[in-house]
Write a structure and sequence with these properties.
Blueprint (H helix, E strand, L loop, with lengths): L1 H6 L1 H27 L4 H29 L1 H21 L3 H28 L6 H20 L11 H12 L1 H5 L16 H7 L1 H57 L4 H21 L5 H15 L2 H12 L5 H29 L4 H23 L35 E4 L4 E4 L7
Helix pairs in contact: 2-5, 2-6, 2-7, 2-10, 3-4, 3-5, 3-10, 3-14, 4-5, 4-7, 6-10, 9-10, 10-11, 10-12, 10-13, 10-14, 10-15, 11-12, 11-13, 11-15, 13-14
């Protein structure tokens, strides 16, 4: 395991820098939009545009990598994402910001696909789980680190957008300088919604719920925190508290779900997330520690649901179907994340900022009701037939190949690298 991590150390550094810039930008955009007096609905649409871009990027990534190669694709998308970040400060206008956030979403989806293809190529069956776990830590750490830059400058200015652009551009260096051979091109995602819903209604509903609630939270949550008297820096701490809650609960919840019906753990997470949502909806202003504590509980309840839903769905799927299960759930999550920000913004515009968390509470209690109903309609999977819990990031379809539950293909596959084309077998580098 240590040698595997050493071989991808530069790549993981790139991931951390990239996620720091992305984490800063995801919180900065709604705060800056508020400072520029954008309407709540306009901010919600900007948030949704990012996830529209993520969905487009999931489908575009394999084509781009196949035609340009991993390194050139990574460099091009890094340059485009850097330019999009800078343009936020140069062109302050809602429609332009929608286009820029959609562009950023496309770029980050492709960047994740390149990174995760490389991580998969540098791991094997003996260490894929460990590499994936470490990748999760880097993801959470980078997103949390990005929030702390909000203390340095006011959101409605060019400095923080410049810092975000700087970190995104620096993330290209470890990949551009790598001497490793290019990994195989990731497969294009497929969505078999009717089959997936029949396989696991709770899994599909869980993925959609997480997308809707978390998409709304990441877009409107910073505005809510700022209006509650926390300021821009406090809004970053508010988001960080939710990330820490997810880190604290994700792995223990997963291990518990390996020993009992996962739907009970999903239901428990829904109760915690719903209760935290109600608390945040009615919390008084200027109560920072109460807000941070409730944000921690919200993250602890809401954020593990996706991985739990993925594990629950995997329990009913054949090993040969795991790629389609994982990519299908990711795309369903993205659909929810497109809906969430706009729905929350429309609600907040006609009510109060706390209505954001009233929406997330209703969403989580709705999933709770479905989960309880399904407990009466379907027997649990016997413990010996359950797949082990895997904390799957919601990044790109390429991360599926890091999932230890996905069988390694034995047949040959076609691979086109940066210099040309050739056929290689699994475990070999192209020549």
């Amino acid at each position: 395991m240590r040698s595997a991590l050493a071989s991808i150390a530069a790549l993981l550094i790139s991931v951390f820098i990239l996620l720091t810039g992305s984490g800063l930008q995801s919180t900065l955009v709604p705060l800056a939009a508020t400072g520029y007096n954008f309407s709540d609905l306009a901010i919600g649409l900007i948030g949704s545009s990012y996830f529209v871009g993520m969905m487009i990027g999931c489908f575009a990534a394999p084509w781009l990598i196949r035609h340009a190669g991993h390194i050139r694709t990574f460099g091009a998308c890094t340059a485009l994402a850097t330019g999009a970040a800078i343009l936020h400060a140069l062109v302050v206008e809602p429609i332009t910001w929608n286009i820029l956030r959609c562009t950023s979403g496309i770029c980050f989806a492709v960047l994740y696909a390149v990174i995760e293809s490389w991580l998969n190529d540098k791991s094997d069956n003996s260490n894929r789980g460990g590499v994936l776990a470490f990748y999760n830590v880097i993801n959470f750490g980078g997103m949390a680190a990005g929030q702390q830059f909000l203390r340095l400058y006011p959101p409605a200015g060019f400095q923080l957008f410049s810092l975000s652009a700087l970190m995104i551009s620096l993330a290209a260096m470890p990949v551009a300088l790598t001497r490793s051979k290019s990994p195989p091109v990731p497969e294009s995602p497929q969505l078999r919604l009717r089959w997936l819903m029949a396989l696991s209604p709770v899994g599909v509903a869980g993925a959609f719920t997480v997308g809707l609630a978390n998409g709304a939270f990441w877009t409107i949550g910073p505005i809510y925190a700022s209006l509650q008297g926390l300021g821009a820096g406090g809004a970053g701490d508010f988001i960080t508290a939710s990330i820490l809650g997810a880190v604290a609960v994700l792995w223990p919840a997963g291990r518990i779900s390996d020993r009992m019906d996962r739907r009970h753990v999903i239901a428990a997470c829904c109760v915690v997330a719903g209760a935290a949502g109600i608390g945040l909806a009615i919390a008084p202003a200027n109560s920072p520690w109460l807000l941070y504590g409730l944000a921690f509980l919200f993250g602890a309840g809401a954020m593990p649901i996706y991985s739990l839903s993925s594990a629950h769905t995997a329990d009913y799927a054949d090993a040969s179907d795991m790629v389609q299960v994982s990519t299908g759930l990711l795309l369903i999550y993205t659909v929810g994340a497109v809906v969430g920000p706009t729905a929350a913004a429309a609600l907040v515009e006609v009510t109060v900022p706390g209505a954001l968390f009233a929406l997330t509470a209703v969403t989580h209690f709705g999933l709770l009701a479905l989960t309880v109903y399904r407990l009466t309609r379907r027997a649990p999977v016997p413990p010996e037939e359950r797949e082990p819990f895997v904390p799957v990031p919601r990044t790109s379809p390429a991360v599926v190949e890091l999932d230890p539950r996905v069988p390694v293909e034995d047949e040959e596959y076609e691979h086109i690298d940066d210099s040309g084309s050739g056929t290689v077998t699994p475990g070999q580098h192209p020549t």
